[in-house]
Write a structure and sequence with these properties.
mainly alpha; ABC2_TM; transport; ABC-2 type transporter; sugar transport
């Protein structure tokens, strides 16, 4: 594995150029450019805040930043998952031209998504400070470590799904359905306390996506720490994804060129 990371490091400039190309292609000719990465979750958060405040009397000052942070993390996870499925197929020309680490192209997907993640997490903390006081700006200190952990998780997800989709082309469609289900089983639209009050808090404990969002959102927004079980769930998710990613890379890295 050490040699694998050395090869990745040697290609860091190539990777950076690919990520820059993705971002430039996406926002070429746009007036606000990267601002669109904030506009989508922000618009959705505003609409949902209005709906939930009207229907359930939710406190906007607490619910708004919580929702925006959750949507930001979820958008990153879904981008890594869906983009990871086609990571090899989208880079066939490079894969067939030269030998490169199998984890390089999933990392391309994650790298572009990480730029959007950093922007939206920063906006979430600023929104929290605007609603609940400048003391909440301390959450800015958590952005980088949380983003790094999310990037690792997103990279592992993208690696696993890139190999799965190369061998089973229905993977992307199945993942799309599973992500829609997981969204409503995660505490993004509603707080964990609401689930616990209805006796279904276990959904978060055994839902890795819910645990990731709930566990990492708490320090970012200066909320009380999530239950210990949530962090054990995050740790278990990283270990399992990491083990699977290593296995798939070792076994299929040199064969995937024949499947794309």
């Amino acid at each position: 594995m050490l040699q694998h990371f050395q090869e990745l490091w040697a290609l860091r400039h190539f990777l950076g150029a690919l990520i820059a190309l993705d971002l430039n292609s996406r926002y070429r000719g746009s007036i606000i450019g990267l601002g669109w990465s904030v506009a989508q979750p922000l618009a959705m958060a505003v609409v949902l805040c209005c709906v939930f405040q009207t229907l359930f009397g939710m406190n906007t000052s607490d619910f708004g930043p919580r929702l925006l942070a959750g949507l930001s993390m979820w958008a990153f996870i879904t981008t890594c998952a869906i983009g990871g499925c086609t990571a090899f197929l989208s880079n066939v020309a490079f894969i067939k031209q030269r030998r490169s680490p199998g984890t390089l192209y999933p990392l391309r997907v994650v790298g572009a998504a990480a730029v959007h993640l950093l922007i939206t997490l920063t906006v979430s903390v600023i929104a929290n400070a605007a609603f609940n006081g400048p003391s909440k700006l301390i959450g800015l200190l958590w952005i980088l470590p949380i983003a790094v952990l999310l990037v690792v998780i997103g990279w592992l997800i993208a690696i696993c799904l890139s190999y799965a989709h190369a061998y089973f082309r229905d993977t992307a469609h199945l993942v799309d359905i599973l992500l829609q289900v997981a969204f409503y089983l995660s505490p993004i639209l509603y707080p964990l306390s609401l689930l616990e009050g209805r006796g279904i808090g276990w959904i978060v404990k055994y839902n890795p996506f819910g645990a990731i969002v709930e566990g990492l959102r708490a320090p970012l927004l200066c909320y009380p720490s999530a239950p210990t079980g949530v962090y054990f769930s995050i740790l278990a998710t990283v270990v399992l994804l990491g083990s699977l990613a290593i296995y798939l890379t070792v076994k299929y890295e040199h064969r995937v060129v024949f499947r794309v």
